[in-house]
Amino acid sequence: MPHRSKPLSDPLFNKIALIGIGLIGSSLARVVRREKLAGHIAISTRSAATLKRAEELRLGDSYFVDPGDAVRGADLIIISVPVGSSGEVAQAIAPALKPGAILTDVGSTKRSVIAQVEPHVPEGVHFIPGHPLAGTEKSGPDAGFADLFENRWCIFTPLPGTDTEALERLSEFWRRCGSNIDTMDAEHHDMVLAIVSHLPHIIAYNIVGTADDLQAVTKTEVIKYSASGFRDFTRLAASDPTMWRDVCLHNRDAILEMLARFSEDLSSLQRAIRWGDGDKLFDLFTRTRAIRRSIIEAGQEIDAPDFGRQAVEHPQGLDQVKKS
Ligand code: NAP
Q: Which of 19, 23, 159, 184 has the most CB atoms lying inside 10 A of its own CB?
């Protein structure tokens, strides 16, 4: 029988437990509250200081250092911690999970999260790995905002035999958070994300690191003239070190494969510059310009000189940017 959505005024879940309350967890807390998606929001995070901050921000209804206490009685549990900590969180919450509950995550890598979490999932609990393709370079509970997932993709990588009703219920949850839904297998997800997200971050970390190594330049011209291309790399390179260390370690194979391709293409570009092959350079730059145009046409970016940064940091300003 097809699953029927609850009326929009009804909470989708009686109790949601958010484990990890940084950028993603706190954005979820805010949108869940705004859209009335849960009767009760329980929050758990590792440190007492972050938990206290979440409470000061009134992100939830109850707060726990022990994640097992937070998930008790919850019908949706969302793990939003660095991917390398997924297994330890799953192990800690497993004995307290309610039969019939949906357990999901938001981790940027999927094969590794599945390998860490699946062995701990008790019989009768629906584990559906997920990844919202939404974020900024900021972290922590203050960084979140309710519009973060608006018009962004949320990818599920369901395991064989996943309950279709549970998947539909989780999809409805993310749709009400503003997202578009897609599903694919975990291996494909990791390969796609290696090129669209992980490699750009690694390149940014590398170029900013190289500039920093050139100490004499860095202290003066690099900062002073950073209004040019370098500035856009520094934004990516300011992303959370723990999160990105874990992404590199947990999507190693796909990242290494993409890096190998990248190095080959870079050598070819280097050769074109060395031999003055202007046609080759022009062709490549024309092709890449078209890619940016298609991203804008797909509604995943706005055609603003600040690369849409104003919209991310000041979501309320999005309409103004779009109108301008
Ligand atoms: P974040 O802002 O740094 O927040 C991480 C949260 O996880 C904090 O509440 C932190 O708690 C908690 N945490 C860290 N280690 C933990 C552990 N061992 N046990 C329990 N809690 C732990 O990170 P985020 O940006 O929200 O990222 C969370 C997840 O979302 C990651 O898996 C990331 O790959 C994924 N993701 C991120 C983005 C992005 O752009 N940032 C986008 C999509 C998906 P304390 O502060 O108490 O230590």
A: 19
Decide which of 81 and 318 is more confident.
81
CATH number of 188-304: 1.10.3660.10
- Looking at domain 13-184, its CATH class is alpha beta
The minimum-distance atom of ligand 1 relative to the CA of 136 is 40
Select the more confidently predicted residue: 303 or 31: 31
User: How do the domains of the chain map onto residue ranges?
Assistant: 13-184, 188-304
Contact predicate 141/53, CB 8 Å: yes
Quick check: CB of 18 below 6 Å from ligand 1? no
Reading the block at residue 116, the tokens are 């860490």
pTM of the model: 0.90
Distance between Cα 144 and ligand 1 center (Å): 11
Same fold, 13-184 and 188-304: no
For residue 312, how many other CB atoms are within 10 A of its CB?
Answer: 20
Q: What would the DSSP string read from start to end of 150-171?
A: TT-EEEE-PPTT--HHHHHHHH
**What pLDDT shows up at residue 211?**
83
Nearest residue (CA) to ligand 1, atom 33: 107
Cα separations in angstroms, 55 against 45, 48, 61, 282: 11, 10, 8, 54
pLDDT tens for 203-236 read: 999 999 888 887 676 667 777 777 778 888 999 9
